[in-house]
Queue: 3 jobs
Job 1
Amino acid sequence: MLPMLPIGFVLAIAALLGSLTMDGGSITSLINPSAMLLVLVGTVAATAAGSTMSDLKKAPKLLMGIMKPSKSNLNAVVEEICALADVARREGRLKLEARLDQGKIDPFLARGVSLVVNGSDEERIRQILEEDLAVYEEERSTGAGIFETAGGFAPTLGILGTVMGLISVLSNLSNIAKLAPSIATAFTATLWGVASANLFWLPIANNLKSQTKQLVRQRLAIVEGCVAMSRGQNPRVIRELLAVYIDEAEGKAKGKGKVGTRPKVEAVKTEGTPSQGESADNRRAVS
């Protein structure tokens, strides 16, 4: 999936500069060192003052993460879970260790599979994975909150810069020739504040929230998949159980349609691994 944040940045800046030049303005008129210093540095400083150092250290990493193509792919995760469940049923849980050693699967899924291999019961698996998921979601929400806070400070600091500029202008009314340019320069601070908030800080926060929802949904599917795997359920049943987590648009993009329907209640009545003496009809019912 394409990283929409940098694409949006480019389009927004192009629209801003394009509208300015179409009205006969000059791009160089936006370059005001004092306004930029107050708004940009002041926003970062005010945001940092209300955050902890550990949270601030995570913000750049989160920003770089949303600048890259999204790694969220529920279809691929569901297929990987079903493949692992098939190995566990056919060859035993210990055979899953070979998949873990390859290091190619999602780290969160690898943690869940390792719990299955170690023989943890389904209640323990769910508890551990959900606690990890809660911490993960809280960290990302805190990161989004930092950028959202910056988006609130920027316009206010822009207005503060404008007021400071107008005070300077009004205190020196003797030079009428420089009055209009000085007023225009004063309002540049407001432009920087509003523009940086609506074209930079707030879009980053919203993108983080949207990406977090997708990743949390993916991890919830992993939790249910690992629990079902620990029960020894059939991969086909697991696929139907996890279909509810898959976004409809993503399912259509896949083009195969085998995991794009909501699971039926009748399909999940039988749980556990079939015993050797189980009849063929019962085996087909589980499948």
Job 2
Amino acid sequence: MNRRLFLAACATLLLFTSTLTKAGTMSGFDFTFNGFDGKPLPFEQYRGKALLVVNTASECGYTGQYAGLEEIWQDYKDKGLIVIGVPSNNFGAQEPLKGKQIQNFCKLNYGVTFPLADRTDVKGRDEHPFYKWAEQQAGEAAVPKWNFHKILVGPDGKMAATFATVVEPASDQVRKAVDAALPKN
């Protein structure tokens, strides 16, 4: 009986170690969101570029940051930055829209042309795995506390920086981090 217990403990430890090793070797490009159009939005397609992933909402006091996100997208998209909006209803139920409604709102009101996911949970029981990975990489700084929290992933797939909601997307602080994270040609 002790042998069975020992073998069960060894198997559990092996499984736990395997899970930790996999989580430790994952990169920011190993995740897929659902796009606003219902099609998969795999980050793998952006491998080798820098990603600025921002949880957004259409009825938030910070919704005006869509304009800054579009500005930084336009300024850096040809240099290797991909801005990705991830609408979320996790904070104050400020994202009532889904799918193409989100895209239409963003395009009509802010001229958004960068990629958008469909509404996604960024915290809680149904938190998207990307946000769990981000927390493993950068701790509490990567955990969204409100809408328009920003996560910058480098072209190597590693966490490059995080920015709180109040940091404007086109600010010098974000631009400096983006400049440092851009792919080196």
Job 3
Amino acid sequence: MPQSIMQVDSFTSTAFAGNPAGVCVLERPRDAAWMQLVAREMNIADTAFLRARTGDEFDLRWFTPTVEVDLCGHATLASAHVLWESGQRASTLRFHTRSGVLTATRRDGWIDLDFPATPDQPASPPAGLLAALGVTARYVGRSCFDFLVEVDDEATVVAIRPDFRRLATIDARGVIVTSRASTPGVDFVSRYFAPAFGIDEDPATGSTHCCLGPFWNARTGKRDFVAHQLSARRGELHVALHGDRVRLSGRAVTVLRGELLA
């Protein structure tokens, strides 16, 4: 029986921008090996696999082309978007994941995700990290997933041309590079590189903002932010801190619907 699959651009209101995610709403159980093959076939940053539990509760897993991951914001946003487009009536959806229960709520054309905060701690840069990025760091930290590198300004973030082969040897999921924004109305900017997980540069990343929100809160005292991710595809996120949780808000656009025949 053919299995439907969609591709959704997340953290954008414009097709062919933001971060593309595959979304597969499973009609029967499938094993992890099959999911990994589908994610490799899709060959985009992440593919989400959903299976219904009850009316508003779903099991959710995320796979890059090479590995299963513990937390993925843009594919969760895409999953909620697909469910509501397909007629799901609940205004809040609950996803059971490797990172606990995550919720998504509709709000005036935006989708709010409730995620755990993943604050960083100061860290010494591992050998080769700054050379692979080609930057001088104002600060280096590490969250439970990633290294975080603060640089002087937005122009430096834009100009980075990483050595992905060297970055892939860093012992972490990936590397976040961030600075204060120079664009009016934007608080901070970032880029994200995860070649060890099969993603040289992720275009618009929800999970990294679970670290960036607490990081910029500590430096500015603010709890609500407008953030831009400065990949070639660009992404826009609104970030709000609530205790040890982070609300990530974004929009999404479906760009493809198809069927898996295998």
